Each structure stands twice: as C-alpha cells, then as structure tokens.
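Minutes, project check-in
Item: structure for the 145-residue chain
Input as provided by the requester:
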Amino acid sequence: MNRVRQTAQKLKSDTMFKPCPVDIEDEIYPNGIFEFNITKIIDYIQKNPDSIPLESVLVTDVYNGFSSVNESYMEDVKISRPIILAEIAPGQYNVIDGNHRLEKAYRMGIKNIQAHRLNVNQHIKFLISKKAYTTYIEYWNSKLK
C-alpha cells in the first residue's frame, strides 16, 4: 500500500475543524478511532472528479490478504467500481473502501484495479469526530522524522 514517498508535511490542528456529518444510511469505515464517512467521500469524488482522478493500481500492491470478507456477498461484488485508498501515514495508502472488490480481483487473478487515491489533506475532512481528528493529527505527526 506504499507509494513513492513524497516529502510529508507536519499537520497543524485546525481549531475550527467540523467533523464530517453522518446521515442514517451513510457507510462508515472504522480504522480504530479513525472513522471515515465513505458515503460522503464517494459523493465528493463524484462531484469533483478532477480533484481525485482514477488510476490503475496493481492488485498485489494494495492487497494485504488479511481482509475478512462476507463470502455470501462475494458473488455480487462488482470489481468495475473503483476502490478508495487513503494516505493513512506519510506515503502509506490503505484501502478504506473496496476490500470485497479487491479480494474478488485477487481471487480472479486480475492484475490491475481502478482506484481513487486520497492524500491526507483530501481525506482528513471526512473523519466523523473531533477526537478522531485531533488523534489523527498527533498520529500523523508522530510518523514524521
């Protein structure tokens, strides 16, 4: 899930940060305390396609093999829908939407899958709590040398 490392910047906490709102049927991706509103990310990408363009990624570069997937759901999974990668630590991108699609592509021997890759400044605004935001800032900055 790594990509060529760019010079990462220290993040400064925005005292005016507003957590991303969550509507009743929104899909949330929990990554420990860091919970992202996937529904709002997808809406943002659809409304701003030039800001987060599609790219082809090697399945083996982003597949970790440790995903737990709902096997009964696998048959209906459409791998044509892009996955979403988020820069969780400087230069490290993790799948935050599309684990079933990635698993199916891997099982089918498909080499590439379409993805949207969000850098830290693009995905941080989709955290759903202030505590997650402030903890994330600390986490990110602790990863910088």
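Outcome recorded: Helices lie at 38-47, 59-62, 71-74, 99-108, 120-123, 130-142.
No further action items on this chain.
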